[in-house]
User: Fold these one by one.
Assistant:
Number 1:
Amino acid sequence: MQLSGFPLQKKLKLIKGPLREWNRNIFGHIDNKISSYQMALSMLEKEAQSRTLEENDWLRMDALRTQLWLWMARKMRY
């Protein structure tokens, strides 16, 4: 999309739609993403009660916690 030569108001109108779509795709499903990370983390924590977790399980658990924290922080900001 070429925007040079357009007044600022016209440029803003042109990017409004794509920005809304981007926002909906990235941030529109925050609660679903948080729920998904919580569920996956809960499943791993339950497994840890019944068996000894392997190193890759602990790494996955750390990654899930990190993602959960990031999405919860995003939710609080918006």
Number 2:
Amino acid sequence: MKRFYRQAAAVPAAGVPLSGSPPGAAAPGWAVTLDGRLVKTPGKRDLILPTAALAAAVAAEWNAQEGEVRPAEMPLMRLAARTLDRDARGREAVVRQIAGYAGTDLLCYRAVRPPELVQRQNAVWQPLVDWATLRYDAPLVITAGVIPKDQPPASLRAFAAAVAGYDDFTLTALQAVTGACGSVIIGLALIDGHIDADAAFAAAQLEESFQIEAWGEDADAAARRRALAAEIAAAARFIALLRA
């Protein structure tokens, strides 16, 4: 759609009228407004965010739109709206989805050959698996090849409990990273501050990067990797702004 506003701003939520609230009702958090009018999510929820830093960054995304509003260029807005439009049942589904990755986590399935790839996976992936084992008291079975292996039920429960312990906004970022990387271990490591976005991308794309070094990279693959890196970086920034 065409840009229909002059200025976006982040303001205390208590200073703007909220849907379904009596006049003068105060609300915690920060709102994003367009020419003084409260932004709504696609699900028609008020865009109320928990930190001033996140609200300011979302407002900056709106201000950066020129001529037309392009949601694809507003990753923080999309993550925020996804959070606010999710109900309790949706939250339960997201927790199950994220925790389910522990059963077939990328980092648990190692190559058989060539030796150089096996060595690189062990060097990059095993420290992350070890970290998760200690952090969540959740050892996982490591296997060579792609045949699924059952993971210890106690470990799966531990990962599910860890995921369920996050607030709604953090859960959205964790869902984005876990899905992009195919690994709840990478997702949790990023959310926990154990690794940054670059390290998360490198771990998730380790095998692809190895193949590119040997055979080169075509334009479609390069575009997919840029999009993946941007998605991970946006989720990492979302988390940083939540904690600012």
